[in-house]
Structures are given as structure tokens and as C-alpha cells.
Amino acid sequence: MLTPLAVHADAAQTADSSQKRWIIGLKDPRPSRLQGWQRGSYGKTRSYQASLELKRFGQRVAKDYQLELDHEWFIESLGVYCLVVNIGEDVEDTLARLIDDDRIEAVQKSQEFYLLNNPSAPRKGENATLLNTDLATLPEHIDGSGSVVALIDSAVDQNHPDLKSAVKTVRNHVELGKGSFDDGEAHGTAMAGVISARRDSKLGIAGVAPGASLRAYRGCWEEASGATRCSTLTLARALDAVARSDADILNLSLSGPADHLLNQLLVKIIELGKVVVTAHDPSRSTLDRFPMQTNGVLVVRALEQDDIASRNKKSEQVMFTAPGAQLVVAPGNRYNYLQGHSIASAYTSGVLALYKQVYDLDTQSDPQPDSQSAKGSQSAKGSQPAKGSIDWSGALNSKHASDLVYRIANLYQ
């Protein structure tokens, strides 16, 4: 369930005529025995097929307010049916009436988000390498085996020789006609390579956790201009899929305005015992950004970046630093150079995969590990329970990637 509608009571007051696209969360009208699951499935085109009851319900609401219905889908992990609608005339009055409707649980803007970093050439004196000396100190078999990392990003080139055996799941949550899903896109492919490019391809580079399994959820798309965008709709679909997956770690190298629906999904993912890693965005404060900064979310800044703007934002507290200048894989069996906070985020997700592997090895040898994370085993209707009660506190309390690698080495001993 979403948090109370009162959170959105100011939507009508802040509306302007240029904001036409809105998301409406509907209360499930079905009997309690049917709530929390959807009698439908992915069709041949991977589009969402809602149950007949929910479809009719959504259509009635749209008709009552003369809304143009764009998309509709069921958020299984939250048990909420969502409509994406276009409001024509008199936006402010329509929103006020929607907020007073007992059938409606939440109303919010449909927003846009962006991925951080673009490929660039190394500056003079920089060493374009993926593995650093900290990771080189770990035994070769500490490679993230048994760990599952979810990546919400642009499309991953799953046929790249360095990624073919690493990518176990690929899902597209972006509408048709946006970007290139089949061939992969630059940002998503780069992040996947930093996390888990295989060392046995003999063709390129190895990721931080070359033994980890990667689940790639395309929630963003690359535009002709080179910019990479996401939306509330596409990210909500991808986050819902992650909540219902077996992933241990979620990498979100993206940013954008605070978003109520997406934050609710993020909270659900954390409640399920998963840890979330996101890239620092120097242009935003913690009061106005997604992903939000909260317990269970690790915000990562690149060691190579010195953001004067972020130092001037007193509300921004960057929690973690990691290497952020790397040689990365690129679509079409190519390689590129990328630097910035996105790389640092993906690097940290890889290190957390190593941490999870060593933590599992340590707890297998100790039947009573000192863990405070029993809450990680709880689940929600429509969601899989967490795979284990991993104590992420040791990792989340670290301040630098080198500190975390040191903790991994100590756990392994």
C-alpha cells in the first residue's frame, strides 16, 4: 500500500497547465482474497495485461474525470493499481476532485530522471584500468560468486563477450520505440561491465565481482542526443520487478526529483533485506532527489570528483567514496572510458557482491553469526522473501571502498 493520500494534498495547489501527465494509484476494489495479486501475465510483446476487474475499474475512473488513459499496470509488491493519464483542461480542478475521491489512494506527477556520466577521454596522467590495487589483494576465488546484483539502467548489451555469461536476466520496462533494447546502450552496458564483466572471456577486462550474477532491468533509454532518460512509469515497473526478485544488491546510477511512488518501492526493497547503491548527484540536495538517502541506501561519490557545489549543500551528506574513472565495456564488442559518480556506484555494488560472498562463507562456518538483520527475512504479499538475513551494517558503516575491501579481507581470514 502507498502512504496516505494526504501526502499529495498539495498536488492541486502546485499544478500548472504545462503538467499534463499524472499517475493515479487506485485502491484495489476486488475482494480481499483476490487483492495483492493480478490475474494476468506478460503477453508476447511483454506488455502488462491487467485483470479484467482492474481494467474496468481503471476505465471507469478515467471516464468519470474525462482523462486520457495512457498506461495502466499493477504494482505487485505494493498491491496498488496505477494509471498514467493525461489531464486536458482545468488541471487544478481535476486534481482537487481526484484527491477527494475515496477510490483513489495517491495522485502524483509523472516525472523524468536521468543517468549520470557520459563517456570521455582520460585526462593526462590518468590510468584507465578497472581493477585497483585494493581488489588485487583479495584471493582470486573471492569474485562475488553466489551474489545477485540487480541493475536498473539503460539497455545492457547481453551479447558482449565480457557480459554474455554474467547477465542472467534481461527485462525491458521501457515503451517500444525508445532507444535500442536489443543492441544495448552505452550507460547500462558500462555499469554491467564494472560490476561483473567476466575475467574468463580473454577479450577484455574483468569487473569488480566477475563471479556475481547480474539481473538487468531496463528502466531508462538513450536518446538520439546521447542523453539517457527514465520516467516514473519505467522506473516503477523496474523497481517492482527487483522487489520480487532474488537480488541481494540494487544499483541505481541515476538521479532526479523526489518521487513518492518510487520512494515507496525503494522502502519495500530495503524491507526485503536488499541493499541499494546510488550515485551522488552534486546538483541535488537530499530533500529533493530520487533515490532518497535513507537507511539501506548507500550514496557513492567518485574519488576523482571534487564537487564544489556538493560541498556547499549542507543537507547533502555523501556516505561513501569509491574509484570513479574506469575502462568499461561498450555495446558492439567495444570498450570505452567513463568517469564519474555512476562508475563509483557500480564499483561499490561489485564490492558489496564480494562482501556478500565472504559473509555467506563466514556464516556457513559459524552457525550463529552476529546479525541484527532478521528484518531482512520479512516479505510482503506478492514479493519473494529475502534469501537470507545478511548483516549489511559492516558494509554500510564503511566510508571508502578501500575500507570495505579491508573488511572483506578480515571476514575471509
Could you describe the 3D structure shown?
27% of the residues lie in helices and 21% in strands. It is of the alpha/beta class and 413 residues long. It has a 7-stranded parallel beta sheet, with helices on both faces. Helix 5 (186-196) packs parallel to helix 9, helix 6 (232-243) runs parallel beside helix 7 (260-271) and helix 9 runs parallel beside helix 11. The radius of gyration is 21 Å and the shape is globular.
List descriptors:
4-stranded antiparallel beta sheet, 21% strand, 413 residues, 11 helices, 7-stranded parallel beta sheet, alpha/beta
Tally of helical segments = 11
Low-pLDDT segments: 4-10, 39-49, 121-131, 367-387
> What fraction of residues sit in β-strands?
15-25%
Report, as a whole number of angstroms, the end-to-end distance.
Answer: 44 Å
Molecular shape: globular
Gist of the model:
Helix content is 27%, strand content 21%. With 413 residues, it is of the alpha/beta class.
Secondary structure blueprint with pairings:
Elements: H1 11-14, E1 21-26, H2 52-64, E2 68-75, E3 80-86, H3 91-99, E4 104-109, E5 112-115, H4 133-136, E6 148-153, E7 167-172, H5 186-196, E8 213-218, E9 220-222, E10 228-231, H6 232-243, E11 249-252, E12 254-255, H7 260-271, E13 275-279, E14 297-302, H8 308-312, E15 320-322, E16 325-330, E17 334-339, H9 341-365, H10 393-396, H11 401-412
Parallel strand pairs: 6-8, 6-11, 7-8, 11-13, 13-14, 14-15
Antiparallel strand pairs: 1-3, 1-4, 2-3, 5-10, 5-12, 9-10, 16-17
